[in-house]
Amino acid sequence: MLFKNKKTKRVDEDQYELLKNAEARIRQKRRLYYHFVIFLIGSVFLIIVNKILKYGEQYNWFVWAITFWAFLFVIHFFNVFVTNRFMGKEWERTQREKLIMKQKERIARLEKDVEQEFLNSDLGKTE
Predict the structure, then answer these.
(1) 1 found inside a domain
(2) Is residue 79 part of a domain?
């Protein structure tokens, strides 16, 4: 009883990959939410600096700064929620498999060419 066999859980490779993908996805979303909160706080700060502290009061520069920052946030949002669906891990896997198949085909073609060249050179020597 003192030295019981401890059962270790083995995670299947597919499950491990799914777990890693899920963790990466959660990290992406968390960073997007942080970006959004910082965007809101930063926007309020820029408005306060321009309007209340009267820095560059003659011109509403905060509008341009917030617009640029909003554009960057939209790109980040698009990357997390749209691009990742179309070009996510599954897309990478299929592209990788396609490239591997192309490489295998090229190697097979080169091996065939080398064999053919070797046979042709052997026939030339025997004649």
Answers:
(1) no
(2) yes
Paired tokens of 61? 């520069």
pLDDT tens-digit profile of 2-24? 555 555 566 677 788 888 888 98
Within this chain, do residues 80 and 115 fall inside the same structural domain, yes or no? no
Domain of residue 50 covers 12-86
Phi first, then psi: give them for residue 112, nearest 5 degrees. Answer: -65, -45
The answer to whether the predicted template modeling score (pTM) of the entire model surpasses 0.85 is no
Q: What angle do CA 47, 53, 56 make, to 5 degrees?
A: 75
Number of domains in the chain: 2
Question: Does a structural domain hold residue 3?
Answer: no
Residues 94 and 7: their CA atoms lie apart, in Å, by: 36
Residue among 85, 82, 80, 89 nearest 32 (CA)? 80
Beta carbons of 62 and 47 less than 8 angstroms apart: yes
Distance CA 100, CA 83 (A): 24
Give the chain's mean pLDDT: 84
Within the chain, how many helices (H) and strands (E) appear?
4, 0
